[in-house]
Amino acid sequence: MDDERTIMHIGGGFEDRSVHILHAARESVPVRTGRMKRRLLAAFAALGASFVLPGRLARAVDVAVDVGHTLAAPGAISARGRSEFEFNRELAQAVVRALQQRRFDVATINADGLVPTLQARPRAAGGARFFLSIHHDSVNAGELQPWIWDGRRLDFSDAFAGHSLFVSRANPDTARSILCARTIGARLQRLGFVPTHKNERRRAYADEEHAVHYYDELAVLRHASMAAVLFEAGVIKNREEELRLRDPVLQARMADGIATGIAACLRNGLPADEEAGADRGPR
């Protein structure tokens, strides 16, 4: 293998007897089997799926679930001061569990928040059938209002709430991307989740009913070699929605809807003519 190594938990063991941990400087340090191996296995088992460092998957999986943002660039800050990355990681873990319950082989991308670039995320997922990037939404700076929470000066906006989905016509499989976004959106609405249409102000619809938007230049979607969808779970600047999105029961219910939608897309779905036509790019 090259110097961009992956650590994969396959059938209770590593793929070889000497694995490497990739450091930020891309220097690899060999890790031998034994006590260190047991410690690594115990740590990664808590993630609920294969844990992938920058590079490519050591084997093909069904779904790669990407945790949006990083520790260094944690994304939006919620109304109560929590980073988007923390929201993303919790929901991603719930989605991984829900997919595994449906017997999908799943890999988690960026669970540690250390993936160095946006391009590295889909590259690490190479070989997967489907790529899902988990995010939480914010609002424009001009729509925020100041408030004090727990002694901290923060901001909020209660104007918008709800989920949305994004696909790219620069992705090599836009048709399947749209289909999966539609089935995810449809299942979430069936479960009672209400989408937001705030993003229609900047992003054209691929499917208005299910709040699926085109975001052609989005790096994690256009650099993916497989069908890919970015999911915005809700607006964490909204004070009520933030609390809902932190609820483990709601997270599990949302994850169940996402996993059911992915299952319908990958196992049963065939793209419609208008979805296949989207691969030709913007018209």
From TrEMBL:
One of its GO terms (cellular component) is outer membrane-bounded periplasmic space. One of its GO terms (biological process) is peptidoglycan catabolic process. The keyword Acetylation does not apply. Pfam families: Amidase_3 (PF01520). It catalyses: Hydrolyzes the link between N-acetylmuramoyl residues and L-amino acid residues in certain cell-wall glycopeptides. Signal peptide: none annotated. Its EC number is 3.5.1.28. SUPFAM superfamilies: Zn-dependent exopeptidases. Keywords: Hydrolase. One of its GO terms (molecular function) is N-acetylmuramoyl-L-alanine amidase activity. InterPro entries: MurNAc-LAA_cat, N-acetylmuramoyl_amidase_3. This is N-acetylmuramoyl-L-alanine amidase. The lineage of its organism: Bacteria, Pseudomonadati, Pseudomonadota, Betaproteobacteria, Rhodocyclales.
